[in-house]
Design goal:
heterodimer; A: mainly beta; Immunoglobulin-like; 1 helix; 10 strands; 30% strand; elongated; B: Cytochrome Bc1 Complex, Chain D, domain 2; Cytochrome Bc1 Complex, Chain D, domain 2; 13 helices; 52% helix; 0% strand
């Protein structure tokens, strides 16, 4: 009796390990990263893998309808160079640095996010009305620091583009 | 009890058939199904600009090239890039005294098809990471002083002073309103960031071509989009002026020298 139970358990374990070995659902994220701290990233390999790859930057509509804005700060610019945000809806900001400490601020608002390499800084932004804010860096980051400035464009939520799950929105020319 | 049953199973007999059934009859179909599900839900391929990431291991490979071995490998580069690292055509880049990380990264990008060129990919395809490091070490050691016997195309004719002032302003201060960092804060001689090539002795046509390709996205091997963003912020006119500025050899000195005149125009 015990032998049969053990065989069943063993086979179930094999099946489970087979499923775990191949990657399910999140195909671009290895399974072991599900157990890792997602707020710690390697600043040197942001462009190779993970949530801060080029095609994932900008504003995304999550499956539950909320908005997530992903950005990178690097010497001497924020990527994307111009970000788009709907008015009146809270937007979850996730930003990390590729090199040194930066600070993302939006002139004329109270928001300020310190950005350090290796960790993901988070904030929830909400803007009430249509506007365009300059977004300068407020932490000295090197010789070109004074010119490190991107833009944040707030547009009415009716005009906000309908983003498919694979689509990322921004207003940068590139 | 438990150990006995395991031992019996491993020893064989009728239970080993059960084990084979589990392995082949259940595990294999499940793995196939999982693979099928994975293929079905595959997201569109992400764009990886460059396979190079400046980890310690990569820095170690790229910066410890053997310049003597590079001097032997360089025979196949001489024809276009010049014996002294200065090309006789302004569309071909000068490689003399370039930062070795920059040369190594570009060779790797050509190798992996991340940077497109009509000439370089087949040449870089046969270069190993070590060959690239050796070549980069060799080129980083070549001097840049002028040689009257050489038929180099550098420096090209200087543009007229009014235009030089305009481009010097961009090189020294960039344009903070548009978010354009100064060129010399990364490409020298004032400051550098990792693997940004020096533009001190670069050909104008080459710089203009690369800026245009960055702006249009035809060249997309810059890590985290740095050059694509800057080049697309610049107007075509400014890109041309900057290329002229560097092609004339002004990039050898900090642009601060010509700033006082330009500062008057700034508001």
């Amino acid at each position: 009796m015990h032998a049969k139970k053990l065989g069943f358990l063993l086979s179930m374990a094999l099946v489970a390990s087979a499923i775990l070995a191949t990657r399910i659902q999140e195909v671009d994220v290895p399974i072991w990263q599900r157990f890792a701290d997602t707020n710690r990233v390697n600043p040197l390999t942001l462009h190779l893998q993970g949530e801060f790859v080029e095609s994932n930057l900008g504003i995304a509509r999550e499956p539950d309808g909320s908005f997530t804005l992903r950005m990178i700060a690097e010497q001497y610019m924020f990527v994307p160079h111009c970000v788009l945000v709907p008015a009146g809806i809270p937007v979850h900001l996730r930003i990390t640095s590729a090199d040194v400490v930066h600070s993302l601020t939006f002139s004329g608002t109270d928001y300020g996010v310190k950005v350090a390499p290796g960790v993901v800084s988070q904030a929830t932004l909400q803007f009430s009305q249509q506007a365009e804010y300059p977004a300068p860096c407020r932490e000295f980051c090197g010789a070109g620091h004074f010119a490190m400035r991107s833009r944040l464009r707030v547009i009415p939520k009716e005009q906000f583009p309908v983003l498919s799950p694979d689509e990322r929105g921004n207003c940068a020319s590139r | 009890m438990l150990r006995d049953s395991l031992r019996r199973r491993l020893r064989g007999g009728h239970l080993s058939q059960f084990t084979v059934f589990v392995l082949l009859g259940v595990t294999v179909p499940v793995m196939l199904a999982a693979t099928f599900v994975q293929l079905r839900t595959e997201t569109p391929a992400i764009h990886v600009p460059s396979n190079v990431a400046w980890t310690e291991k990569t820095l170690d490979i790229a910066s410890n090239g053997d310049a003597f071995r590079g001097s032997l490998l360089v025979k196949r580069c001489d024809h276009c890039h010049g014996v002294e690292g200065f090309s006789d055509r302004p569309t071909t880049p000068n490689l003399a005294s370039l930062d070795r990380l920059a040369v190594w990264k570009e060779l790797q990008d050509f190798h992996y098809g991340k940077r497109i060129s009509p000439v370089m990919p087949p040449i870089a395809a046969i270069l190993s990471a070590r060959d690239s490091a050796d070549l980069a070490a060799y080129y980083s050691m070549l001097p840049t002083f002028p040689d009257p016997q050489d038929n180099r195309s550098f420096p090209q004719a200087a543009p007229d002073p009014a235009q030089t002032n305009r481009s010097a302003l961009l090189v020294a201060l960039g344009d903070a309103q548009r978010g354009i960092p100064p060129c010399q804060s990364c490409h020298g001689p004032v400051a550098t960031v990792k693997a940004a090539p020096s533009l001190a002795t670069q050909n104008s046509d080459y710089v203009a071509n690369q800026l245009d390709r960055f702006a249009s996205g035809a060249r997309a091997n810059d890590i985290n989009m740095a050059m694509r963003i800057v080049a697309s912020q610049l107007t075509p006119d400014e890109r041309y002026l900057l290329a002229q500025y560097y092609g004339a050899g002004f990039g050898r000195f900090p642009a601060g020298a010509t700033i006082p005149q330009g500062m008057k125009d700034m508001k």
